[in-house]
Amino acid sequence: MLHRKLKTEELNRISAEQFKEAQKSGLVIMLDNVRSLHNIGAVFRTADAYRADCIYLCGICATPPNAEIHKTALGAELSVDYKYFKNSIDAVNDLKVNGYKVIAIEQTENSVSLENFEIKKGEKYAVILGHEVKGVQQEVVDAADYAIELPQFGTKHSLNVSVTAGIVIWEFAKHLIIK
C-alpha cells in the first residue's frame, strides 16, 4: 500500500477567519511565566490544531506580534485568541468567573495522573503550564481546582513545556471535540 503525502490544499484546512467563527473546544491554555518564545509559538500552533478557546499569557510571557513566536506558531498567533495578564492569579480568577475548571499541570502531593482525570464533554477547562525550570508558581497551584501530572517512566522528571502542552491539549481534545 502506498501512502502518498497529501498536498496542503488537499487537507481542507479552514482559514484564520473561519477559525475565529468556528465552535471551540472549551479549553483555555494558560502559560504562567513561560520564557521561551519558541514554546509560546508551539503552544499557539497546537491550540489552533485543536480549536482552543484562548491562550492566557501571564507574567514574563511575550505576546504577539513577535517574530520569534511566529517562527513556531506559523501564523496560529493570528487565529487563536489570547489575553495577557501581568499577574497569573488575576488570570486564574478571570477563568473561574467565566466558568472554567482550572487545572495546574504540575507534580504535586495530590495530583492526578492525566489518564485518570475525568474530562467531560460540554465542560470548560483551563490548563496551566509553567516556567521551563520552576514550573507553575505555588500560589497558582494553590488557586487551581485540580493538579494533573503526566505519567513518566524514564530518568527525567519533566518534559518540555510545548511537549507537555501537546500531550495535554490532545488528551482534552479527544474528550471535548472528538467524542
Give structural notes.
It is built from 7 helices and 7 strands. By secondary structure, it is an alpha/beta fold. It has one domain: SPOUT methyltransferase, trefoil knot domain (Alpha/beta knot). Strands 3-2-1-6-4-7-5 form a 7-stranded parallel β-sheet, with helices on both faces. β1, α2 and β2 form a beta-alpha-beta unit. α2 packs across α3 and α2 packs parallel to α7. The model has no long low-confidence stretch (mean pLDDT 96).
- Low-pLDDT parts are none
The number of strands is: 7
Note the beta-strand portion: 15-25%
Class inferred from helices and paired strands: alpha/beta
Cα distance spanning the termini: 29 Å
Write the CATH fold name.
Answer: Alpha/beta knot
CATH architectural label = 3-Layer(aba) Sandwich
Shape: globular
Major sheet: arrangement of strands: 3-2-1-6-4-7-5
Number of helical regions: 7
Helix-strand string:
HEHEHHEHEEEHEH
Give the integer mean of the pLDDT values. Answer: 96
For this structure, what is the CATH homologous superfamily?
SPOUT methyltransferase, trefoil knot domain
CATH class: Alpha Beta
Query: What is the total number of structural domains?
Result: 1
Instruction: Please describe the biggest sheet, giving its number of strands, its sense, and whether it closes into a barrel.
Output: 7 strands, parallel
The helix content is 25-40%
